[in-house]
Amino acid sequence: MALIFIRTAIIFITLLFVMRLMGKSQVGEMQPFEFVISLLIAELACIPMADTSIPLLYGIVAIIAIFVLHQIVWLLDLWFKPMKTVICGKPSVVINKDGIDEYQLKKNNLDVSDLIESMRVAGYFSLDDVYYGLYEANGSFSALENPDKSTSSLSLIIIDNGKADKKNLAVCGIGQDDLDSFLKKQNAKLKQVLVMTVNAEGRVYFQKKGEKYQILKMEVNGKW
After folding, report:
1. CA angle 206, 210, 213 (to 5 degrees)
2. pLDDT of amino acid 12
3. Is the dihedral of CA 174, 177, 178, 179 positive or negative?
4. H or E segment to which residue 121 belongs
5. What beta strand segments (E) does the chain contain?
6. What is the pTM for the complete model shown?
7. What is the C-alpha separation between 51 and 190, in angstroms, rounded?
């Protein structure tokens, strides 16, 4: 028991030292390669701590080897700019002056609901609250705020990639006939709509696939 405690303490000190050398990004927003390295280090640290049949030195050497690889990748990232894109990726602009960029969303394995969730975390509750929105290489969401934003209530998703959200329709007090009539006025079919949201004042964000978004009005009866 005492041996395991001592081995664990040695590995802990080694890890603490290595993680400090790797820099602040290791404990903040990590790049993909840094996340992989963190997982590897965690796995390598557990093996010698729990299994006394494995020489402790093996674990320490493996952790130091990962640190050396980290430094090599970091130097490549620093000295060769094209390598940065290969290793870390690049930001993806998912909202532009025309609205949501469906291609960029799919490229990052995201959908409209994922985007809206990221916006809410960032403090934006309507899709037109921002001029530009992008996902950074580390996965965080950044936005250029629309100075004229006038959000006064939460917007709910009515249509997401050609599919109506029946639960939100009920919350908003919008019947299927009302939705069909609204779509007919916009000369759109359900499957052609990328996204449609509405807030408690009936303010609608409406975007057909491959087209620029529109801000419209609609009668709503729900309260939220």
Report:
1. 25
2. 65
3. positive
4. helix 112-121
5. 92-96, 99-100, 130-135, 141-145, 156-160, 163-164, 193-198, 203-208, 214-217
6. 0.71
7. 59
